[in-house]
Amino acid sequence: MPVKTKTKISVKAKPKKAVRSIASLKTNHGDWKNLVQGFVENVFERLSENVSQKVHAWVRVLKLRTAGFILVVLGAFYLLIGVSVYLNSVLGLILPGLGYVTVGVLAILVGSLLGKSKV
Questions:
Q1: Is 3 a domain residue?
Q2: Rounded to whole angstroms, how far apart are CA atoms 103 and 89?
Q3: Which domain holds residue 23?
Q4: Rounded distance between C-alpha atoms, residue 115 and residue 111, angstroms
Q5: Within a domain: residue 89?
C-alpha cells in the first residue's frame, strides 16, 4: 500500500517583495539625487574656474595698460619740459619765460580740445 506523505507547498509572500521594491526605489532615488548633485557641483566648479581665469586675464591686461599709461604721461611731461626749456633758450632773449608760457598755452588748448571731443 502506498504511503501518503504530506508535501508542503511554499508560497513566497508577495508583500515582502513589494516592500523590497519600495526600498530599492528609495535607494535609487538617493542614487539619482547624488548623480544630479554631482553634476550640478561639476558645472558650478567649471563655471567658477572659467570666470576666475577671465578675471585674472582682465586684471593682467589692466595692469599692463595702467603701467603703459603712466609711462606715456611721464614721457609727455618730460617732453613738454624739454620743449619749453628749448623755446625759452631761443625766445628768452626777447622775453624771459616765453618758452614756458608758449608750451603751457599749447598744452591747455590741446587738452581742452580733446576734452570737448565726442569719442
A1: no
A2: 13
A3: 14-116
A4: 6
A5: yes
